[in-house]
Structure formats: C-alpha cells, structure tokens
From TrEMBL:
This is ATP-binding cassette subfamily B protein. One of its GO terms (molecular function) is ABC-type oligopeptide transporter activity. Residues 324-550 form the ABC transporter domain. The chain crosses the membrane at residues 20-40, 52-76, 150-170, 239-260. InterPro entries: AAA+_ATPase (IPR003593), ABC1_TM_dom (IPR011527), ABC1_TM_sf (IPR036640), ABC_transporter-like_ATP-bd (IPR003439), ABC_transporter-like_CS (IPR017871), P-loop_NTPase (IPR027417), Type_1_exporter (IPR039421).
Length: 550
C-alpha cells in the first residue's frame, strides 16, 4: 500500500543527509545567541571578545555550507522519489490492462503521474525539514530553563499559541490542496477528451463552445488558489501577532529577573534571542503547506496504485489446435450482466464468426476470449488450460487481437507490426497476409517510416493492426478489425484467414453477413447470452437472425 510514510521511507538514502544538515543549521541557530551573549558580556566587562566574534563568524559559515548541502540533497531526494513513484504509477496503469484504470479519465491520470507525483515526492524532505525546524525552539526551551525557569514558562506559553495557529493552518490547507489537484486533473481530462474528438469538434463548428467547456473549471481553480492564499495570509498574520508575544513575554519576565538580580545582562540578551527562535516557528507555514500538497499527491497516487492489475500464471499452453472453451462465463460490471452464463466449446482451427446486434456483448466476449479482462464467474480455457493459469509470454504469443480502431505503438511502421523486431521475414509475411505491404512499400522509407509521420487511412491502420496480431499461433481475435476495409480487400484477408495454414482458431466479431457466411461456425449473441451456435446458412432461415444484419 502506498502511504505518506512509504513515500517518506523511499527517500531514506537522502533523508539522513537532509536531517543532519538541517540539524547543523538548527545547532548553529541555537548556539549563535549564546556566543553573541558571551560577546556582549565580554564587551561590557572589557575583557577579550575577539575569540567570541571569531566563533560567531565560524558558526555562520558552517550554517551557510549546511544550508547549501541541504538544498542539494532535498532536490536530489525529490527527483529520485518522483522517478520511483512515476515508474510505479506507469507500471500499474499499463499492467492494469483496459479494465484496470477504466474509472479514471486519461488527462487526470496524466496529471497524477506528472505534476502530482512531484508534489508527493516532497513528503520526505518537507517532513524532515519540519522536524528539524522544531529542534531550535525545543532547544530554546531547555536552554531558557537552564538560565531561569520563569523564562522557560513564559516562552512555553507563547509557543503553545504559535502551535495552535500552525495546527489550524495544516488542517485547512490539507483539504484545499487536494481539491486544487483534483480540479487540475479534471481540466486535463476535459482537454484530453477534446483532443480525442477534435475532428468532430472542428466538423461541428463548436470550437468556441469546446474552449469554454475546457476552461469552465478555471474559476473553481482560481477560487481554490485564493482560498489557499487566504489561509496562508490569515495564518501568517496570526503567527506574526503571536510570534512577537513570545518575545514580549520572555523580555518582560527577563527584565524582572534582571532587576531582581537573578540573571545577567548577557543572559537576558541570550534569552531574547531564544525567544525569537520560538516566534520563528510561525515561519513553518511554508513547509506545512508543502506537506499538505505532498499528502494530496500521495493520496492521488495511492488511488491509482490500488487499482487491480491482471495477474498471470506460470503455465505454458500445450501443443494443440486452439480449442477455445467457455465454461459458465459471466461478466458483471456496474451492476449490469454483460455476458450471462456462456458455455461454449469451439473446435480448434475453426473460423468462428461472432454476431449480434449492437450492445449484445460481442466485444466483451472477445475481450474475455483474449484475456483482456477476466470473467466475474466461470473460466475460459485454450487447449484445456485456463487462461488465468498461463504465463504472460505464453498467452501473448498464442493469442493475438486486432481492433476496429487500432492504436499503433512503436517508432516505425515495422515496429508497429512487430514491436520486438525479431524477424524482418515475419514482419513481411504478416504485412503481406494482411495486405498492408502494398501501401507500406509505397511509403518513402517503407517499414522504417516514422509512425508519426506516416499518413494513413482508417483501412490502412486496420491492416497494420491486423498484421501486428498475425503472428499469434493459437488464437486470433478480430473485433470488427476489418470494418474499414473495402469489400475486395476484406474478402482477400478473409480468404487468407480461412486458408491460413497455421491451424489456429480465428474468432471474428463482425456485422457483415458475407464474413459470417465464410466462417465454419457462427456464435449468435443477444443481450449477453448465446442465442445459437450453428452455421450461417442454417441460422439464415431465422428471420430474427437476418434482422441482426439489418
Ligand atoms: N466496463 C463496462 N461497464 C459497464 N458496462 C459495459 C462495460 N463495457 C461494456 N459495457 C456495456 O456492455 C454492453 C455490451 O458491450 P459490447 O461492446 O460488448 O457490445 P457489442 O456487441 O460489441 O456492440 P457493438 O456491435 O456496437 O460494438 C454495452 O451495453 C456496453 O455499454
């Protein structure tokens, strides 16, 4: 579990250095009044004071060096912790598969991984700095008690008031920091949503409305920013009033004790300096604000890190024809039954078309067959092995998926087809089989053309998506993956699929009757249930089946 404590703990390599230097700084701050007090007494007594002034100069130099090392170690700790947190977040998001972070908007996720991770990484240095900042006032209390117990009592009373101010500040600022980060995430989500649909927005001529929609949360962000500054200003003002009170109380008591002959003038001077340190606690608002932002960042990272990831087994898939078995499979999401008790045994090596009206559950069926998501109940097996028991490597080399709108990944066209670039021969074979080779070879750099710079139609993208899935040797799942192809190309690919020499099972989600007609078997889905499993020609006798194709 990711908590504030675990993020602090991660920076433990740097924290001792930060703490040590902060303590040196505190020690210098504590020692300086005493040294200066002695200088005053020496000057008043007319004795040698040079050594005291030299000691003061040495202490100041030590304080400067300590603060430089502290700044360097703090920055290094934040950078390292941010990188660690980002690695974990990205791993979780990617390993969660399509279902893992479904509840998060894309822009919000990006904000959590980018800006909020840096906020969270301040946890360690800010905590150590806060603890170290408490040391001088605590030391002041002890040293004042050594000079005179009444001075310590006056100091303690004043410091309690400063602590009350800081406590209220910490409580108020925590909520508003989280709200601020959440609003930032929502603005980023609206922007990423618009980028996804930018073509539709341009076509509909709603760009101004879209601009307003994205920025409509800005006033909220502004309000949260203003609240933050107000809390900071109010607490700062309170601390500014309460802080000098500590000094006044200590000076008043110290004056009385000096008159009573209980303390010396030098001791009164030192006491006044210690009182200033107590009043200085009020300056902690900055570091408390950092802790509040870090807490909010950790909270938002923990939300992501607590999502589910797909676990894999260790088994290989034994040699077999690609027999796919659904055993009482149900998928329930958001209180809806998306697949309802599906039991099927699809013969290995067959071409199986999955048909049904819109929303029938075809894509859910495909996702479960390819283990892009797990069933809520029941299990899916390939050649007798439950998919959940199979290792990731075995599963992904046995099962390939292609989608209606493939997201191509990689630097070049070649990498988009075969990410590991194991064999150019295999890349070429996949591209030829899916009719991608023709248009790829027309590109200026062929398979080495940058993916970002290659202009592609929907059908060309689909061909690359198909080519990427092609190398799977046991099961090929095509979810509407040829819907943008012209009829002639679709027919050619369909033939290749049917005549495929690999003896793998092909599961083709389709809305086209011609594709269903060419399949060995059709699974007819309706409302998440299997309505029939038969050949297209037989099902065609049923008018409800014909209606599926309009
Ligand atoms: N994660 C989810 N949570 C809740 N409902 C979901 C989820 N995923 C899909 N659904 C719903 O499940 C139903 C089946 O979706 P699915 O995408 O499988 O339909 P489909 O048969 O492929 O439709 P189409 O032919 O239009 O692509 C739909 O009503 C969809 O809204």
């Amino acid at each position: 579990m990711t908590t504030f404590g675990s993020v602090v703990k991660h920076g433990r390599g740097w924290l001792p250095l930060i703490g040590f230097n902060a303590l040196i700084g505190s020690g210098v701050t504590l020692a300086l009044p005493t040294i200066l007090g002695h200088s005053v007494d020496s000057i008043v007594a007319g004795t040698g004071y040079t050594q005291w002034l030299m000691a003061a100069a040495g202490l100041i130099a030590l304080g400067v060096v300590a603060s430089l090392i502290d700044a360097f170690a703090g920055a290094a700790c934040v950078a390292e912790t941010t990188a660690w947190l980002r690695h974990r977040l990205v791993k979780q998001i990617v390993h969660g598969g399509p279902e893992g972070t479904r509840g998060f908007e894309t822009g919000d996720l990006v904000t959590r991984v980018s800006a909020n991770a840096t906020d969270a990484a301040q946890a360690g240095p800010a905590t150590v700095t806060a603890i170290a900042a408490v040391a001088p006032p605590a030391g002041s209390l002890v040293l004042l008690a050594v000079i005179d117990p009444w001075l310590a009592a006056a100091f303690f009373g004043g410091v309690l008031l400063v602590i009350a101010v800081l406590w209220t500040f910490a409580r108020r600022t925590a909520d508003v920091s989280l709200a601020y980060q959440e609003t930032q995430g929502r603005i980023a989500s609206l922007l990423s949503e618009s980028l996804t649909g930018i073509r539709t927005i341009a076509a509909a001529g709603t760009t101004s409305r879209e601009e307003r929609r994205i920025l409509r949360l800005l006033p909220e962000l502004h309000k949260q920013g203003v609240v933050t500054w107000r809390i900071l200003a109010r607490s700062g003002a309170q601390a500014a009033v309460v802080g000098p009170l500590v000094l006044v109380a200590v000076l008043a008591v110290g004056g009385l004790q000096l008159v009573a002959g209980q303390i010396t003038a030098g001791e009164l001077f030192a006491a006044s300096q210690y009182a200033v340190l107590g009043a200085g606690l009020g300056n902690l608002t900055g570091v408390i604000g950092e802790i509040a932002r870090a807490r909010a960042g950790v909270h938002r990272a923990a939300d992501v890190l607590s999502t589910e990831t797909i676990g894999y087994g260790t088994l290989p898939i034994p040699t077999g024809p690609g027999q796919l078995t659904f055993d009482s499979v149900s998928v329930v999401a958001g209180g809806n039954v998306l697949l309802d008790n599906v039991t099927l045994d699809l013969p290995g090596g067959a071409t199986v078309a999955v048909v049904g009206p819109t929303g029938a559950g075809k894509s859910i069926f495909a996702a479960v067959a390819a283990r892009l998501r797990d069933p809520s109940i029941g299990q899916v097996s390939l050649d007798g092995v439950p998919l959940q028991a199979v290792s990731r490597r075995a599963l992904r080399s046995a099962v390939g998926c292609a989608f209606e709108r493939p997201q191509l990944v990689g630097r070049t066209i070649g990498e988009a087809i075969e990410p590991r670039a194991v064999s150019p021969v295999r890349t070429l074979a996949a591209a030829r089989a899916t009719h991608a080779h023709d248009f790829v070879s027309r590109l200026p750099d062929g398979y080495f053309t940058s993916l970002r710079k290659a202009p592609m139609s929907g059908g060309e993208r689909q061909r690359l998506g198909l080519a990427r899935a092609w190398s799977a040797n046991r099961l090929l799942v095509l979810d509407d993956a040829t819907s943008s192809l012209d009829t002639a190309t679709e027919l050619q690919i369909s033939r290749t699929l049917t005549e495929d020499r690999h003896h793998r099972t092909r599961l083709i989600i389709t809305h086209r009757p011609a594709t269903a007609a060419r399949a060995d078997l059709v699974v007819w889905l309706d409302h998440g249930q299997v309505r029939a499993v038969a050949q297209h020609a037989d099902l065609w006798q049923n008018s409800s089946y014909r209606e599926v194709f309009g």
